[in-house]
Amino acid sequence: QIQLVESGGGLVQAGDSLRLSCAGSGRTFSRYAMGWFRQAPGKDREFVAIISASENTRYLGSVEGRFTISRDNTGNTIYLQMNSLKPEDTAVYYCAADQSYIGILQSPDYWGQGTQVTVSS
User: Which of 19, 22, 30, 119 suits 5 as a labelling partner, its CA being 20 to 30 A distant?
Assistant: First the structure.
């Protein structure tokens, strides 16, 4: 079992950048597929980016080229670098983990508590 804690959210203007971090516990962190999801007010939660244990990545179409997911297994941390932020990126961002790359997209085993990202126009 692992626990996930996100940080790095905040209020920024359109065009700015933010980097989210997600610190995970557990000695098997490196074996997990990890991901970032987001939920905007009144909308369903959606996947943003995922990274496999072997560091294959996949992105939501609307963030591809602007967001970059990465992982530091030594530090049990994943990151989401968000550039050229838009008001429509405003949401609560959640970190998630699962033992499989398929599972992270379907129903992650573990979730963080979320961090708010607000992008003003």
Answer: 119
